[in-house]
Hints:
- The protein has nine helices and no strands.
- By secondary structure, it is an all-alpha fold.
- The chain has helices spanning 9-23, 30-37, 51-74, 79-96, 98-103, 110-114, 117-131, 139-159, 169-185.
- The protein is globular.
Amino acid sequence: MVPRAGLTADRLTAAAADLADEVGFENVTLAALAKRFGVRDASLYSHVRNLQDLRTRVALLAGGELIDRIAVAVAGRAGKDALAAFAGAYRAYAMERPGRYAATQIRIDQSLIADTPALRRTAEITYGMLRAYGLTEPDLTDAVRLLRATFHGYCALEAGGGFGAPRDVQKSWDRAVDALHVALENWPQEESTDD
């Protein structure tokens, strides 16, 4: 095989993200990626350290794409409108880009997160939306976890065909967002442990 000119880490990452959407994130391998470019596996090691490095790069790429969509959706909105826009953009990305979305769910080294503008932006946009509900720490972190668990759980079940009842899935999604809005507006105050 003759190596193709122009291989870069960014090009490999984008191709791996496309491959993830086609075959599933868990099925992305260096061998499959090398085959796509018509090169030997060893040719990739001058651009990525190993499979974990490649998967982390895909996760960071996908995280940036996801927050870009969310940022556009929530711009100029607050409260329930922002929450619904955030939720809709999140779900659309998960359904349209399943491999990339799966990549956003992997655990990434915390030192990489601190150095990644897209992931810092994710925190800024998410926490900013929730501050409009009057939440402060530690409630902000708890609310972020509630939203992530709800959105991810719903999307995973939907993608896997887990909703068999005749009720329209979109209507259930809308009701779930309504319920989250009510929960955020009426967030329970943590009982003080001071005596």
